[in-house]
């Protein structure tokens, strides 16, 4: 089944971000984002008949959300594979719409990761083969992958720092970004070490936040308030749960998930104008640029040098400021979709880049699950 | 009749894979599983092989190469190493290389199991360095 262009994103929004009001719950934030996304689309709560939601702070996400919003869904889905879940939920929503299981799908996530405290909000499972060695997860897993990349390809800490500096430069153009001050390579290198080679500025933020995305058929989307953002391709890949089970720490499942998404979209990496990559750590951006075909394997470090992925660079990457500098509420996948849609509609203000196509690539766990969505405007169909 | 057969549970497990692994460690042995049909080592220990064959237990030589390495800098405390070790038998596990500066552990270092220790109420193998940078895994 190739559903290229048959469904579209009709509405997007973020909840309150950063540090939200005391007492706010993840469900409060999901509801807030949902209302804002419906307003964006020109739809009402009563229009939603498909609910696709995950919130790590509540055990039965769609059940709770439907009660909260008074929705009796015709179809619902709580697929959970970490931070990439939201890309896969786009694929599931598209398939459900195409199969006639629902007409208007809500995809939503939120977390109070900052106000609730990361350890309380995201407790880690005990793993008898890893936990006793006291890895600082997830950072240590990504540090191990970075150690392979440095060993095999000569990637440097300075090149990793370029990723953080570019994200910060974009964040300064985004009024909703958490970080408000410039960042230099030296500041990244001199920041407190977490798990070598990743210092604290190589690691994503811990913020509150969340978002909602409304998906419906392309025809329905054309009748609504905003320009439709068409779903051109999707793909996913699961490779391991814990980092000691990752088949090859130098290559991620983005190669497979991206390959599927490009094939469905009929596009190549050279056709993509905007690149939104799940940057939980600086090494992620380098790995995904390689594995999604924006540069050859091993050249991600040199690719990002000299501000190449910052404002005015050779490739527009993570224009919202990313998980590194904009917002990272435990899981960041939904925010990649929100930014891609805004850019494709031309609503990104000071950080707007010329674009007709975008790739939004989600990552879950410790490079464990990869899920890719390719989006485009009317010209890309 | 075959279509009406149900499993009789005669192969009920009395020892979990983790318990068996821990029992070997208590004897000073690093054990792993081997899928003879697929001719592949399996780690972590499990009930079912991911390669489709039958699992048997084997004892590792305890020797391997550092595959990936990091050191962690706690806010309060000394830096320590966390590494992934590629064992000579073809499986990989998380551990640490002790007895050297955690910042000096390198990918390709030849290591062997130095000791079995108890941490977090489980036994774990800890490695020592035999030789630095012998091979590039």
Major beta sheet summary of chain B = 6 strands, mixed
Q: Which structural class best describes the helix and strand composition of chain B?
A: mainly beta
Low-pLDDT runs of 5+ residues of chain B are: none
Strand content of chain B: 35-45%
Query: What is the number of E strands of chain B?
Result: 9
CATH architecture of the largest domain in chain A: 3-Layer(aba) Sandwich
Helix content of chain A: 25-40%
- Pair with the biggest interface: A-B, 29 and 29 residues
- Global shape of chain B: elongated
CATH class of the largest domain in chain A: Alpha Beta
Question: How would you characterize this protein structure?
Answer:
The complex is a heterodimer of chains A (381) and B (137). By secondary structure, chain A is of the alpha/beta class. Chain A has 2 domains: 7-118 and 207-231, Peroxisomal Thiolase, Chain A, domain 1; 135-193 and 233-380, Thiolase/Chalcone synthase (Peroxisomal Thiolase, Chain A, domain 1, 3-Layer(aba) Sandwich), CATH 3.40.47. Chain A is 34% helix and 19% strand. Chain A has 14 helices and 12 strands. The radius of gyration of chain A is 19 Å and the shape is globular. The mean pLDDT of chain A is 97. A 6-stranded mixed beta sheet of chain B has the order 6-5-4-8-9-7. Chain B has a 3-stranded antiparallel beta sheet with strand order 2-1-3. The termini of chain B are far apart. Chain B has one domain (2-131). Chain B has 137 residues and is mainly beta. In chain B, strand 4 and strand 5 form a beta hairpin. The chains are: A alpha/beta (381), B mainly beta (137). At the A-B interface, helix 6 and strand 5 of A face strand 4, strand 5 and strand 6 of B.
């Amino acid at each position: 089944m190739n559903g290229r262009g048959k469904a579209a994103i009709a509405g997007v929004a973020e909840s309150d971000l950063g540090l939200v009001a005391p007492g706010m719950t993840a469900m409060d934030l999901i509801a807030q984002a949902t209302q804002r996304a419906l307003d964006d689309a020109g739809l009402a709560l009563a229009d939603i008949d498909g609910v696709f939601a995950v919130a790590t702070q509540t055990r039965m996400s769609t059940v709770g959300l439907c009660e909260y919003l008074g929705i009796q869904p015709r179809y619902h889905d709580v697929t959970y594979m970490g931070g990439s879940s939201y890309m896969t939920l786009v694929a599931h929503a598209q398939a459900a719409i195409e199969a006639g299981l629902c007409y208007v799908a809500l995809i939503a996530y939120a977390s109070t990761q900052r106000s609730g405290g990361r350890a309380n909000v995201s407790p880690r499972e005990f793993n008898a083969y890893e936990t006793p060695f006291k890895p600082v997860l997830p950072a240590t897993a990504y540090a191990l992958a970075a150690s392979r990349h440095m060993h095999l390809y000569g990637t440097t800490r300075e090149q990793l720092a370029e990723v953080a500096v570019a994200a910060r430069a974009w964040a300064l153009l985004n009024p909703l970004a958490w970080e408000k001050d410039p960042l230099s390579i030296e500041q990244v290198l001199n920041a407190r070490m977490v798990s070598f080679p990743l210092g604290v500025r190589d690691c994503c933020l811990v913020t509150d936040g969340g978002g909602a995305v409304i998906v419906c058929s392309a025809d329905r989307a054309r009748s609504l308030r905003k320009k439709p953002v068409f779903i051109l391709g999707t793909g996913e890949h699961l490779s391991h749960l814990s980092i000691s089970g990752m088949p090859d720490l130098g290559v991620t499942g983005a190669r497979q998930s991206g390959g599927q998404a490009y094939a469905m979209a009929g596009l190549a990496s050279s056709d993509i104008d905007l690149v939104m990559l799940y940057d939980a750590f600086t090494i992620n951006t380098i790995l995904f640029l390689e594995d999604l075909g924006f540069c050859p394997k091993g050249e991600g470090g040199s690719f990002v040098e000299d501000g190449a992925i910052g404002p005015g660079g050779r490739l527009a990457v993570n224009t919202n400021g990313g998980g590194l500098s904009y917002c990272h509420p435990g899981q960041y996948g939904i925010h990649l979709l929100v930014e891609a849609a805004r850019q494709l509609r031309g609503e990104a203000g000071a950080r707007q880049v010329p674009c007709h196509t975008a790739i939004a690539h989600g990552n879950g766990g410790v490079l464990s699950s990869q899920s890719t969505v390719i989006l485009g405007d009317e010209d890309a169909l | 009749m075959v279509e009406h057969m149900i499993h009789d549970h005669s192969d009920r497990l009395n020892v979990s894979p983790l318990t068996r692994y821990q029992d070997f460690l208590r004897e000073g042995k690093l054990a792993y599983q081997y899928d003879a049909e697929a001719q592949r080592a399996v780690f972590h220990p499990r009930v079912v092989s991911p390669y489709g064959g039958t699992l048997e237990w084997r004892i590792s030589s305890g020797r391997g190469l550092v595959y990936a390495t990091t050191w962690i800098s706690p806010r309060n405390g000394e830096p320590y190493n966390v590494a992934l070790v590629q064992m000579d038998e073809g499986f990989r596990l998380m551990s640490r290389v002790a007895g050297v500066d955690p910042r000096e552990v390198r990918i390709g270092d030849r290591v062997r199991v130095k000791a079995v220790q108890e941490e977090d109420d489980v036994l774990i193998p800890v490695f020592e360095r035999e030789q630095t940078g012998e091979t590039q895994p």
